[in-house]
Structures are given as C-alpha cells and as structure tokens.
Specification:
Blueprint: E1 12-22, E2 27-32, E3 43-45, H1 51-57, E4 63-66, E5 69-82, E6 87-93, H2 98-109, E7 114-126, E8 133-146, H3 162-167, H4 171-184
Parallel strand pairs: 3-8, 4-8
Antiparallel strand pairs: 1-2, 1-7, 2-6, 4-5, 5-6, 7-8
Amino acid sequence: MTSDRLPVWRTKKYADLTLAGVSGDGVFSGYASLFGEVDLGKDVLAPGAFARSLAKRGAAGVRMLYQHDPAEPLGRWRTIREDERGLYVEGVLSQGVARAREVHQLMKSGALDGLSIGFQTVRSKTDRQTGVRRILEADLWEISIVTFPMLPSARVSNVKNARWFRDHETELVRTMRRAARMLKR
C-alpha cells in the first residue's frame, strides 16, 4: 500500500530564524526557533531540542538553502548552537553563486529578511486544550532564507535600510503578525 502522505512521525516542519545583521562579505547571524514562541503552525521548540542533531551533524551537516529548495544552496553555516534564547547561527553566503549575491542584496535592503529551519520531529507532545505541539527533539537538516517565516516577528535587524521595510510592511505581513499574537493567547 502506498500513500502520498508521510506518517505523522516523519512529518517535516519549518520554523523561523531571525537574522541579526548582514556584512558586506555575506556574513550574517541570528536566532532560529526562539525557544518558547509559538509559530503559525502552532509549534513551539523546547530548549535542548536540537542538541542530539547538532552533536551528530554539526554546522557543516546542515544546509543553507533558498526558500527550502534543495536545488538552491546559498552558502554554508559556520556556527549553529543552542543557548538560553534559542538556536544561534552564523552563516556566510557564497558570493560566487548568482542567487546568493541576489539574496545578499535583498537582505541588505530589507526586502528579504526571514529564515526558516527544516527539521524532522523526533519527539513531541501536544497540548490537547490549545493544540500547540511542543517539539522536544528535532533532527535539523536545513536552514533557509525565506520571504515569509512562520514566526512573523522573526526579522532582520541591524541592516542598512531595514527600517524602511518595517515602516512599509505589506498587509500580508501585518496579518501574519496578528495571527501569531492570537495563537499566543
């Protein structure tokens, strides 16, 4: 018997990453899956959820992609680690890749500021009242630069002209932020 749907234990989810600055040479840093924040998919990542995966793969084993597309690698992750706030990352865009140069320019202008992690859930627990799923262990396999992250508050900071983008955000972004606030209630 075949099925187009993956079993629940093999479901892949995408969570968010916040950028914290982009340099002229394509180096940037930020936080993925800020612990304790519920995303638009009603998932929240627990501290320690990535420990086993990071020990196994390290930063070199996690791919940097564009919009979760495996045909669009953009660079490499230099550092990925958990701390008290969440999953901290430092990456470098490959300037010899045309898409990476485009992404770099879009990030610097504030037009592209979201990041999202791709993972497979290993262990989780769902709150029956709220429907929020707490991810206790996740197998991290990629981190993407994306247009719309699942956590609307996950945005670029400390980038030239990023203020313009925040002041001129789209209605879709405002709607996503309202939805995220409602999920937290």
